[in-house]
Amino acid sequence: MSSSVARISNARRFKPWPYLLIAPSLIALGLILGFPVYKLISLSFERYGLAEIIAGEGVFVGLENFKETFTDPEFWNILKRTLFFTLGMVSVSIVVGAWLAHLMVKMHPGIRYVLNTVLILVWAMPQLVSISVWRWIFSFDFSIVTAVINSMGFEMDNHNYFVNTFSGFLIIGGCVAWGALPFITISIYAALTQVPKDLIEAAEIDGANPRQVFRNIIFPMLLPIYIILISLSIIWDFQVFSHIWIFLDSRPSAEYYTMAIYAFQKSFGLSEYGMGAAISLIMIFALVGVTGYYLRQMMRMGDE
Fold first, then answer.
1. Structure pTM?
2. What are residue 47's DSSP bridge partners?
3. What does each C-alpha distance from 34 to 27, 40, 60, 117 come to in angstroms?
4. CA 203, CA 188: separation in Å to the nearest integer?
5. Which domains does the chain have, with CATH numbers?
6. What are the beta bridge partners of residue 60?
7. pLDDT digits (tens, 9 = 90+) for 241-279
8. CA angle, corner 118, sides to 115 and 124, nearest 5?
9. For the packed helices 73-106 and 219-238, what is the interaxial angle rounded to 10 degrees?
10. How many helices (H) and strands (E) does the chain have?
């Protein structure tokens, strides 16, 4: 009895080696991420403009930057626009990605191989290159889309698709979703290949139709991967910056402002670095809250 207790106590004894081995990585990560976050937090409580840059020191203003941000009607309009854009992009990316993944399961192996190759090539393409290609397709002077429409008998020479914010955001959103589809599609396809076929065959023998099989067997088993993909998509789409900035020649109008553009313009356009830091910190807290919620949901599913 005493020997078994001794073995249990030895097993529960603190073992420092795993923590010592991971310590260098944690220290490096802390230095790379910790210091910028610390500076961001401290800057958000200061008035830091051109005068303060010359003086070399910011003026502590407490929560004034946050108060001014939350009382600014423009902030709430931009937040609403960003949320709608994020919701639309996440919905389109997940739905289309899931649809393509289910198609890949039923495809001929040769066709599936070609589609996989195309998706990986799209995924490997640098973001700047893909945005530039999309911008060229919808350019003011040499748009392929405009040429196709003109060939159909409609006059649309030198049409600017970004004068209207609805069509502009559709194009930007299409480019964002196009870049996100490879990762989402391949991830869901990989998860689908792990669903036991005997469960699906048993359900079909019992008379379940494809919709019932998906709802009662496939979707519950894929729910963790959906939660991960939704969380990542929210994080990526909420902070979209490059697409809007490049599509609009680095001069987006206020109608195209999202939270990332808004924070950038406050900091580097108006030289209100404290305000920009406060807006960035609000974005971080919002994304941490969303991520924490989805992680908690995953932990609950694991406990069940």
1. 0.83
2. 59
3. 9, 10, 21, 38
4. 21
5. 67-303 (1.10.3720.10)
6. 46
7. 999 999 998 888 889 999 999 999 998 888 889 999 999
8. 140
9. 140
10. 16, 2
